Amino acid sequence: MNAIAAVEKYLDSAKESQLEDLKQWLRIPSVSADPARKADVAKAAQWVFDRLSQLGLQTELIPTKTHPLVLASTPPVPGKPVVLVYGHYDVQPPDPLDQWTTPAFEPDVRNGNIYARGATDDKGQALTHIQSVAAWIKSGQTLPLQIKFLIEGEEEVGSEALAEYLKEHAAKLACDVIVISDNSQYAKGEPAITYGLRGIAYFEVWAYGPKQDLHSGVFGGSVTNPAIALSRLIAALHDSNGKVQLPGFYDCVVPLKDSERARWAALNFDDSKMAKQLGVSALAGEAGYSTLERRWARPTCDVHGLMGGYQGEGGKTIIPACAGAKVSFRLVPNQDPATVAKQFQEFVANFKQPGVRFEVKDLHGGPGVVIDPDSPFMKAGERAVTSAFGKSPVLMREGGSIPIVADMVQRTQAAVLLLGWGLDDDNAHSPNEKFAVEDYYRGIRASAHLWQELSQIVK
What we know:
Elements: H1 3-13, H2 15-26, H3 38-54, E1 58-62, E2 69-73, E3 82-88, E4 108-110, E5 113-115, H4 123-138, E6 146-152, H5 160-169, E7 177-180, E8 192-197, E9 199-208, E10 214-215, H6 216-219, H7 226-235, H8 258-265, H9 271-278, H10 291-297, E11 300-308, E12 318-319, E13 322-331, H11 337-349, E14 357-366, E15 369-370, H12 376-389, E16 394-398, H13 404-412, E17 415-420, E18 434-436, H14 437-454
Parallel strand pairs: 3-6, 3-7, 7-17, 8-16
Antiparallel strand pairs: 1-2, 2-6, 4-5, 5-18, 8-15, 8-17, 9-13, 9-14, 10-12, 11-13
Helix pairs in contact: 1-4, 1-14, 2-4, 4-14, 5-13, 12-14
C-alpha cells in the first residue's frame, strides 16, 4: 500500500474522533475582542498547542502583549518545499445571543452541519490541516515535506501581535508557500481556490456636540444633533451610483481584466438566488459592475455599528451629546490602508456641521493581495482539491480580508495558497455560524493530498 492510500484508509476510520476534536475546540469561547475572555483565548491556544505537541511536532507557545502565538513544525525534508500553514484560534463575539438556535459555544450537529461560533471562521478550517498531518503520522507514513504551523489568537482584531513578531522572527517562518483555509468554496458542491483577497481599513468616527445630553423639547432646533450630523456624514460617503466619495480613493485601483470579467460571467451567478438567500428584495452596489465583481474585486465602504443616544425601552427625548459609527473600507490590491486612512481623515475634517466636532479613530488595516493563478503551487492545490471533492475547483477572488497575509508574504517572500472549505452561507460573524461536516472531512482529505502534491514541486 502506498503512502497516500494508507493515509486515506486512516481517514476513513478517524471521522468520529476528528469531529470530537472540533467540538472540544469550539467549546472554548476565545473571543479576542473581549478583554473578559482573555483566559479563554489563552485556553484555546493551549488546546491547539497540546494537539500539535502530541503529534510529536516541535511546538512553541509564544507569549505576546495580547494573545499567544502557537508555532510548530515537522522535521525538515531536504530538497523539498517548506509549507507554512496559517490559521487563527480566536473568534468573533457571538452577539446577538438571542438569535442563536443553540448556544454559540455549545457545538450542535444538525442537518449535516456543526453549529458554533468559530465553526468555519476559523477553527474548523484550520483544524483540517492539523488533522491531515495527524493522518500521515498516525498511519505510519513519513511526511514528504516539512510543514510549519502558525496559529494566532487575534486575527479578528487586526493581528498586531503577529505583525510585531514578524518584524523580528520572520526567519523562523521561512517557507516556500503559505497555506491558508479561512475562506469559502464558490458554492455548495463547487470547490474553489482563491487567488485574491481584499484588504481593509477600519475606523470609528465620532460626532461630539453639547457637553451633555439635552432635553430635545427645550433645546431642539437650537443645536445640531450629533446623531443627525453623523447620519449626514455617513450618507455623504457614497454617491447615488454607489461610488465611494473619498477624494483619490480610486486612484490606485487597477481595472479588472476583460479575461477575468469573462471568466466570472461564465460562472452564471444568480443575483435573485442570492437575494433570496440573504432575505432582501434586491442586490445593490456600485453601478457598472456585476455582483461578483463588486464582491471580489472592487473597493467598498460599509457601516458596521452605530452608537449614541438612548438605547433602552420606551422613549427618552434627548439630543445626545455624541454619536459614533464603526466604518470600514474594503480595499483592492494597490490600495494602501495608510493612504485610505489619510483620505478618510481629510474627508471627515472637511465635513462641517455647526457646533459639532468630528473625531476619527484608526482601528486597524491591511492591504489586499492577488496571487498568480498559474503558479505550480496553485496547480498542486487544484489536484489536491479535485482528489477530495471529485470536482475541479473554481478559481475565484474573495471579498473578505485576512490583513496579515500581505505582511507575511512581504516578510517571507513566499507564495500563497488559499483553500476554502466553507460556504458563503456559513454565517461567519453572524448568529448560527456553521460548517458542513462533510466539507470538514473533505477539507482534511484535500489537505492530506496537498502535502503529496506539493512535495512533487522542484525547488
